[in-house]
Specification:
single chain; about 80% helix; about 0% strand
């Protein structure tokens, strides 16, 4: 299954690349797919996962996952404030953002869903919900500025994000043991199933649009990729190993090592920041993540740590 899944990854990314390269799909499709994934398909997946998760299980893994995510996402952000204070204004918010935030929707979930059981994926989804809150509650404000009007918009965006609404609705269904009509469950499952194909198609289209090796001469992109995919997960695991169950520590280390988020590219374009820097960091960190974490997940699966 995992081998077929890896082949599926490669094939769909290539299809996305070739569809733009051959002009079967316009480059502008890369601007349409992220909102479709983040506002429609991903919320359906979140809702279904939380709705069918046992409340005790949710509380058992939820609290440590929330705390670990907050600590290891916010700590790099706060460290980056003095670290990048002399960096150019069009690069500073990007580096602060991607230092602790990863690409959960487009990379983590498609990859980890090949190896983890539904119960183990709960950790990934809870992590993603917290990250989504931080993205709109902290980092978006960095791009917008700190005006009062901006803060009001941020609060509204956080409270009304489809992902947060899906999580809350799913948890309520779990708590009150609400059984959805069969036709609705079937529909949501099919919409949620589109997450991986859309995410992988988008990655292929993005590579075609910006080039696969444009980052090679970027020292910043190389150092960032090594930090985010290799160094940070080791730090996370080294700390959590003594606090949480081994399996949970492994999963959190893997998801917290996720590569640069797609929103960094989207926001850079939208707010006039250094889009090339965002792309240069996204592509090599994504490639490295698939290679490194795919290998680690295979070892964990074979050893019985995950997927049991």
């Amino acid at each position: 299954m995992q081998f077929n899944g890896i082949l599926f990854f490669i094939i769909v990314i290539c299809v996305g690349y070739l569809s733009v390269r051959s002009k079967l799909v316009p480059e502008s499709a890369t601007d349409v797919l992220p909102p479709l994934l983040l506002n429609v398909c991903f919320p359906a997946m979140l809702f279904l996962n939380f709705a069918k998760t046992d409340v005790d299980e949710l509380l058992g893994v939820g609290i440590p996952t929330v705390i670990a995510t907050l600590v290891f996402c916010l700590l790099p952000f706060f460290v980056s404030i003095p670290l990048f204070r002399k960096t150019d204004a069009d690069r500073r918010p990007i580096l602060r953002y991607i230092s602790g935030i990863g690409n959960n929707s487009f990379v983590c979930i498609p990859l980890l869903s090949l190896f983890l059981t539904d119960g183990e994926m709960t950790v990934v989804f809870i992590h993603g919900a917290v990250v989504d809150f931080l993205i709109w509650g902290v980092h978006h404000q960095v791009f917008l500025g700190s005006t009062g009007g901006a803060r009001k918009q941020i609060v509204k965006k956080v409270l009304l994000t489809p992902n947060l609404i899906a999580v809350v609705a799913g948890v309520l269904c779990s708590v009150f043991a609400v059984k959805l009509p069969e036709f609705l469950t079937y529909t949501l499952e099919r919409v949620a199933a589109a997450v991986s194909p859309i995410a992988l198609l988008f990655i292929g289209m993005l590579i075609c649009r910006y080039g696969l090796f444009g980052w090679v001469k970027s020292r910043t992109a190389i150092l960032y990729s090594l930090w985010k995919v290799l160094v940070l997960p080791c730090i996370v695991f080294g700390v959590l190993y003594f606090i949480l169950p081994f399996q949970t520590a492994c999963i959190l280390a893997i998801v917290l090592g996720a590569p640069a988020p797609v929103t960094a590219v989207l926001w850079a374009k939208q707010y006039g920041k250094d889009t090339k820097l965002a792309v240069d960091c996204l592509i090599p960190s994504t490639i490295l993540y698939f290679a490194v974490m795919g290998t680690i997940l295979t070892i964990l699966l074979k050893s019985g740590v995950i997927g049991a």
